[in-house]
Design a protein that fits this description.
homodimer, alpha/beta, five-stranded parallel β-sheet, 5 strands, 35% helix, elongated, MeTrfase_7 (chains A, B)
């Protein structure tokens, strides 16, 4: 089964992501202090001065969409990194040069993203098309990887929940909240597989001493996937689709085989990953 | 006066650049052998093995437009570089990793460009928005710079030829062929200024031992700018605009102040640049 690509609505019209991403912005603002602290405490800036390009500080925003949130986040990250360098006695003339890579699916609206980059930006900008579940950058070329409200998008819905012949088929639903236990387990397994792909790729791409910061919505500790609190958001869509099935506008099979490729992990699931020995 | 940005028509419709760039393709094919030879003879692949990211071979296509020509050119360049490395005894496992930066104006259709990147590409891809008359990349981060059929686009038409009060105003024409001598000289001076900006920026961005390959249309040696042979292409447009002036659809002043920001240099002009001492 192919990877699925659900991109945010491009442009800057009324229904665009650019005009409808305030909630994500609030989340990023809350995380700002945490990210600043992580950079201050954990970023390793001892670099190999013999290397002519070691002064490039590569930052990637994975799943950046079309803006404007990414602009605010990149400015905050760069500010924190500059502060860290200055606290180590580095002067303006010897600060690193920033190169920011904005990544999202090939079908993301990069035209809008590029048109809205801040004119006074303090970095070289580049767009990188492709799924972050694969390699996107050369080995050791990034010093900071950021991803906000993107990793809840799985590479695809777990195949079995859309398979009409499977015992795990998620019939009459398009999400795993209040579904059969097996459906929640299948989603959890897909998330684990995707995170492994994500982290393996980043382990290659991150330079020694670099950092990854991930912002994503999660569910309450100690709960099962099917007890996810993200569900109510999708209830109106589910109900509308069921109405369309009843009115024979779409077929029951189509509804049964369609499932949203999103997942909201618990803190325990995330801790499971950070306990693994990743070779960064 | 602001820089002007004339981008090729995006998308892949009937009038798109993607469907109307065969001539440029033929030119790039002719240049292939020259570029292969230049890489074989002049590319310096002695690198600093102590540097962890020295294995990244950065290539930029400046003024890449939306494809598909750039895909063919990038494949040819990478093939030639790989051959060069192999001829020096490097094996598959120690070949450089390629990262290709596709550059064009912010208003270029990067969405179409990204959608048409070859699926089986042997490089990491990135899009870089911005004018190549400015810095686009960190210092020493590129090993090969390529630009095809892009540098005849000046950063702007020389201001004086569109200034109604200037003795150099190019009245009743939108191009410098068969114009007053001063108009040709103004264009030549603008081209020189732009090339200086272009080469200064690249001198910073190119890594030691790297190469630049520029493909552009030129005019016959020993001719004046006003004897340019590119002119006839624009004659129909000029005539149509003059008809519109006569029919009072557009104003005479508008016609007099508008000039195409393109230039076709002679071999002597280009040699003038290569004789200068650029610190690459």
């Amino acid at each position: 089964m192919q990877e699925e690509s659900y991109v945010m609505i491009g442009g800057d019209g009324r229904h665009s992501y650019a005009k409808n991403s305030n909630l994500q912005r609030v989340g990023a603002d809350h995380a700002k202090t945490l990210i600043m602290e992580a950079i201050t405490e954990n970023l390793d800036i001892d670099e190999d001065v013999s290397c002519p390009v070691s002064n490039i500080f590569g930052i990637a925003d994975l799943g950046c969409s079309v803006g404007p949130n990414t602009n605010v986040s990149m400015r905050n990250i760069i500010e924190a990194v500059v502060q860290k360098y200055k606290s180590k006695g580095r002067h303006d003339s010897s600060l690193p040069v920033f190169q920011v890579f904005f990544n999202d699916h090939v079908s993301n609206d990069f035209n809008t993203l590029f048109a809205n980059l801040p004119v006074d930006r303090q970095y070289f900008a580049a767009g990188v098309p492709g799924s972050f579940y694969h390699r996107l950058f050369p080995k050791a070329s990034l010093k900071f990887v950021y991803s906000a409200y993107a990793l809840h998008w799985l590479s695809k819905a777990p195949p079995e929940v859309g398979d009409l012949d499977s015992a795990s088929c998620n019939k009459g639903k398009l999400y795993y909240q209040n579904a059969k236990k097996e459906v929640g387990q299948a989603y959890s397994a897909q998330f684990e597989k995707d995170m492994e792909s994500f982290l393996s790729a980043r382990a290659e791409e991150l330079a020694p001493g670099g950092l990854i910061a991930i912002l994503m919505s999660g569910r309450k500790e100690g709960t099962l996937p099917i007890q996810s609190s993200l569900g109510p958001q999708y209830q109106p869509l589910e109900s509308s689709l069921l109405d369309m099935v009843n009115e024979e506008i779409i077929s029951k099979d189509k509804m049964d085989s369609f499932n949203l490729p999103i997942y909201s992990p618990s803190a325990e699931e995330i801790k499971g990953f950070s306990d693994k020995k990743w070779v960064f």
